[in-house]
Amino acid sequence: MKDKKIILSGIQPTGTFTLGNYIGAVRNWTKLQEEFDCIYMIANMHAITVRQDPAALRKNTANAYALLLACGIDPEKSIAFIQSHNRCHAEMNWVLACSTQFGELSRMTQFKAKSEKHPDDINAGLFTYPVLMAGDILLYQSDLVPVGADQKQHLELTRDIAQRFNQKYGELFTIPEPYIGETGARVMSLQDPTSKMSKSDENPNACIFILEDKDTIIRKFRRAVTDSDTCVRFAEGKDGINNLMTIYSAVTGKTMDETEREFDGKGYGDFKTAVGEAVADHLAPIRERYAQFSADKAYLEKCWTEGAQKAESIARRTLSKAYRKVGFN
Ligand code: TRP
């Protein structure tokens, strides 16, 4: 029997990661590697549910993979692969689609939001996206799935699909649970701290990209929106400062109390600069490793090829069982 629980998560290859992706997700993924059997996937099949430039997708996928390694995902400890390299995902998608109801998919809030955003391309893939995601999770008999709030509903649906399949055809799938990390800090926009940090924000000062240089990072933090109080403390109504304190805590490990004491009697200016510096220093080694990995195409290809082989050997077993259960000869 397996002794460690299985964790699976995926991230879409959309250019570079933001500080929000990093603190909210990918950094926690690296910590989980010690305790669990982890499988991390670049979800390039999910990416084509919205229109993509093929050359850019190819490049973004490779870069996202390099970035995973740069952030500390260890391809010896974990399985790190690119979704389209493992054909089982497409095949499982079909089987599960036939155990998913139209009505269920129609209720997905992300589908509604994305169809409003792209009214000229409401394709069937966008609609069945959660089924593909269910396959990602169920193929590996995952116990735990670290997901952000925006993917919770998809995970709920995955559980429903798995339970329904198990009932109809006999026990096959492990029913996955959401994994809620210790802090799982939510990083907010530096320009509007009531909304989530997003790479699509029109204001370039709202979002930190993890490969940005030190000066840019510090400059953006210095421009961060705060409040008219002057005291660095974590409190209701101080969204801007709360966000900066959360980020500071995430990169330095200091508690809110320690931070309040550290900046006692100092102004917001000093604090913002300190947060900017701490973030830039924390990200510097990632930038360095990223530069190394992305310059070494042979190494990257070796890692993702091996990752896909390992992923496929696990997924293939589950897929074969599913095929047998539904009555394929
Ligand atoms: N849909 C997820 C997102 O957009 C990415 C993803 C794809 C994923 N497959 C997954 C996340 C499986 C967790 C588990 O963020």
The order of strands across the largest sheet is 1-2-3
Question: Would you count the extended β strands for me?
Answer: 5
Average pLDDT taken over every residue: 95
Morphology? globular
Q: Give the N-terminus to C-terminus distance in angstroms.
A: 29 Å
Q: Please summarize the sheet with the most strands.
A: 3 strands, parallel
Assign the CATH architecture of the largest domain.
3-Layer(aba) Sandwich
Number of helices: 13
How much strand content do the residues show? 5-15%
Percent of residues in helices: 55-70%
CATH class of the largest domain: Alpha Beta
**What ligands are attached or bound here?**
tryptophan
Number of domains: 2
Radius of gyration: 21 Å
Going by helix content, strand content and strand pairing, the class is: mainly alpha
